[in-house]
Design brief:
This is B box-type domain-containing protein. By secondary structure, the protein is α+β, with helices and mostly antiparallel strands. Helix content is 20%, strand content 36%.
Length: 405
């Protein structure tokens, strides 16, 4: 029970720590130990649930299709080579016959004819070598992503202009707001469910692994849960009577952004309960506004703009201490009449993507807070989200674009 600090890891707690968590390298007092244990158990359960949701049969079937395509392509190449050699063989015999007709008086001719009749034309055929390393199976390798090389959409889904900008994913399904409906896509970018939404305009949505449900916040100051399997819709009682602008989840914790630029933390398990709250100037300066928030494991990203300085930043904070991890200025000019969305989403390997509709640009930011690249998108990107590990979904005013990475 040795400790390495004089206070509990919970920033607002001043009690003496009695327990050291080797999983998280944190010192905890007895009061916060049970909450921390429940959180760790919830995170473990979430990871197990994610593994259970992986459809290995589908993955194997998809990879078998790749092998079958390779086989078919290889057979086509062999067939084309065979046809080419058949034509060359016909041409060889034709040339040989013509040449020998011109040498009818040659004493060697009779011997050649007899040899051809008995043995045919010599054909030298080598067996086709198959390199056993043509196809290999191994560990997934991390490939460097370059936003400049973003491919054209593999599929585009048209939406109405009156829709919102909400999108959320659990890596198996993608939920979007398509006024007056909400729509679910599978990993093949195919609509699997579509039903009418009757509970007010949607401001934002996210996925909770802890609840195994989508969370939707509306302009009516209400929050709803949509179960992916049953599609049941349950309303959570109004929370603190505030107008929520954005939402994001980290395992069993829900974070809501208020109109007053406050970030409020709720514990979702075992029941919904208020946990912590951060206000200005901890969230942003007095003259600044938070446009979006997004979680990635134990970090929280905030897109912050300033109408007075006309600048925008992406801020990354620790969810444990709310300490600043990095801040990067985004190369955009903020106008007082600024209305179009600026959104951020977690990307691969703890990186981030910011979509900015006013200048139609995407900002790709590394885990160290350095700008990795920018891309001028051909439409105004209202929102973006990583769907699984291979698809980047970009929402515009009238389309949902699926890009393969």
């Amino acid at each position: 029970m040795s400790t390495t600090s004089t206070s509990c890891a919970i920033v607002t707690c001043t009690q003496i720590p009695y327990v050291f968590c080797y999983c998280c390298s944190k010192n905890l007092c007895l009061d916060h130990l049970s909450n921390h244990t429940a959180l760790v158990n919830s995170q473990s359960k979430s990871s197990i649930d994610q593994i259970k949701r992986i459809n290995f049969d589908k993955l194997i079937a998809n990879d078998r299709l790749k092998l079958e395509k390779w086989r078919d392509d290889s057979l086509k190449k062999i067939h084309r080579y065979y046809e080419k050699k058949c034509d060359e063989l016909d041409e060889f015999y034709a040339q040989k016959s013509l040449h020998q007709q011109q040498e009818l008086t040659d004493t060697k001719f009779q011997t050649t004819i007899l040899d051809i009749q008995q043995n045919g034309i010599p054909i030298h055929i080598r067996s086709l070598p198959i390199d056993n390393n043509l196809i290999t199976f191994g560990e997934l390798k991390t490939q460097e992503f370059d936003i400049i090389n973003l491919s054209s959409p593999i599929k585009t889904y048209n939406i109405s202009k009156s829709s919102g900008i909400g999108m959320a994913t659990n890596n198996q399904s993608l939920l979007i707001d398509q006024n007056p409906d909400v729509i679910l896509f599978n990993q093949d970018s195919i609509v699997t469910e579509q039903f009418t939404w009757k509970y007010g305009s949607i401001r934002d949505m996210c996925w909770s692994f802890g609840l195994n449900s989508f969370i939707i916040i509306t302009e009516m100051n209400k929050t709803y849960l949509i179960n992916e399997n049953t599609l049941s819709i349950d309303c959570i009682e109004p929370m603190m009577n505030q107008l929520w602008m954005s939402c994001t989840c980290s395992n069993s914790l829900l974070y809501l952004l208020s109109l007053s630029n406050a970030v409020v933390e709720f514990n979702l398990l075992p029941t919904l309960s208020y946990d912590r709250r951060w206000d200005q100037p901890d969230t942003c300066k007095k003259h600044e506004t938070i446009k979006d928030i997004s979680c990635n494991e134990d970090t929280l990203a905030l897109v912050i703009i300033s109408y007075s300085t006309k600048m925008a930043h992406l801020i990354l904070r620790s969810l444990t201490t709310f300490d600043l991890l990095f801040s990067i200025r985004l190369d955009m000019i903020v106008h007082s009449s600024y209305q179009l969305p600026i959104r951020c989403c977690p990307f691969k390997n703890h990186q981030w993507l910011v979509s900015e509709a006013n200048t139609s640009r995407l900002f790709y930011i590394g885990k160290n807070g350095k700008l990795q690249g920018t891309l001028k998108y051909d439409q105004q990107p209202y929102n973006a989200i990583l769907f699984g590990s291979r698809i980047l979904v970009i929402r515009t005013e009238t389309t949902i674009n699926f890009h393969e990475l």
